[in-house]
């Protein structure tokens, strides 16, 4: 196996790497090796720009992207509503109610009369 030695690493960077490795339950050598593997799994800037150059330009009128996003969200919300139509939300556990409200884009209201979370 080959070896890599990096000299003149600033102390704050070395310490940040050490802390991150500890947080991940790894040795610093394993953590840095994992960083290298992840980086090499991505295209380089040159490769990314070469790929980008082969694609046709996208010409959108102002606001068109936002409209498309809104339409996709509305479609997703309709699918979720349809999937949840057979679920009795009132009889669901509290955690499920919060999750359902989150999926539907609603704020969860804890108790009647509690203004927390209301629009």
Please give a structural write-up.
Among the domains are: 11-53; 64-103. It is built from 5 helices and no strands. It has helices spanning 11-23, 28-40, 45-53, 64-84, 94-103.
What Rg is obtained from the alpha carbons, in whole angstroms?
25 Å
Biggest beta-sheet profile: none
Please count the beta strands (DSSP E, at least 2 residues each).
0
Q: In terms of per-residue confidence, which ranges show pLDDT below 50 for 5 or more consecutive residues?
A: 111-119
Fraction of residues in helix: 55-70%
Order of helices and strands: HHHHH
The number of helical elements comes to 5
Overall structural class, as computed from helix and strand content, comes to mainly alpha
Q: Beta-strand level of the residues, as a percent range?
A: under 5%
Distance between the termini: 60 Å
Q: Tell me, briefly, the overall form.
A: flat
Q: What is the strand and helix layout of this fold?
A:
Blueprint: H1 11-23, H2 28-40, H3 45-53, H4 64-84, H5 94-103
Describe, in short, the structure shown.
This protein is mostly helical and 119 residues long. The chain has helices at residues 11-23, 28-40, 45-53, 64-84, 94-103.
What attributes characterize this protein structure?
mainly alpha, flat, 0% strand, single chain, 119 residues, disordered C terminus, 5 helices
């Amino acid at each position: 196996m080959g070896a890599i030695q990096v000299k003149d690493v600033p102390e704050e960077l070395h310490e940040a790497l050490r802390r991150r490795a500890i947080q991940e339950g790894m040795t610093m050598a394993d953590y840095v090796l994992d960083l290298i593997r992840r980086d090499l799994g991505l295209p380089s800037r040159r490769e990314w720009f070469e790929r980008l150059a082969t694609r046709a330009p996208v010409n959108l009128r102002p606001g068109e992207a936002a409209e498309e996003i809104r339409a996709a969200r509305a479609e997703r919300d309709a699918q979720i509503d349809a999937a949840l139509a057979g679920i009795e939300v009132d009889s669901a556990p509290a955690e499920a109610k919060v999750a359902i409200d989150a999926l539907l884009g609603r704020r969860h209201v804890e108790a009647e009369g509690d203004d927390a979370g209301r629009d």
